[in-house]
Amino acid sequence: MSALNHLLQPEQCAVLLIDHQAGLAFGVESIDRQTLLNNTIALSRTAGTFNIPIIASTSATKVYSGPIMPAIAQYLPDVHPIDRRSMNVWEDDAARTAIERTGRRRLIVSGLLTEACVSFAVLSALADGYEVFVVGDACGGLSERSHDLAMRRMEAAGAQMTSWIQVLLEMQRDWTRRDTYEGARAIVEAHGGGYGIGLAYARDMIHPI
User: What mean pLDDT comes out for the span 31-43?
Assistant: First the structure.
């Protein structure tokens, strides 16, 4: 086993986006909704930059939740969301099969709501032997307390907690990796707050002597 196997490698991972729908986002109180949207877009763009398969699943699109939020969907042009009746992705044959077909055993998960559709899928995937990384700042819960409790339960079951920026930097790891440099840098500049401002400044203002 490689000494670096503990770090995320693009070729080992798949991204699972669960129920990033406006009808559910209305109920999110654990994180500012615009921040949640920003972070989910950044994660989606990261998956695209590193050629990581994305499985997107939705629930109750026609009766309550609506489609994937358009601001996110625009970064998923080749992804066809799988609509479910069950709250648990793992109990939906089509969604679970789509995940299995990627052949990837490391799942990077984000979604709504943390207390239900996210935690149910994560706990089920762990039970099936997947290694699961939950992007906590791209998940939303009904309250800070209930979100935190759900995160703690998933972590206790073996899930690893992370953030979108850590996922991106872990995939890139070396800014001399030219194939993904421009894409990764653009994501950080657009979505990375002060860090992104710093990268833009360095690009435009700092020149080697």
Answer: 98
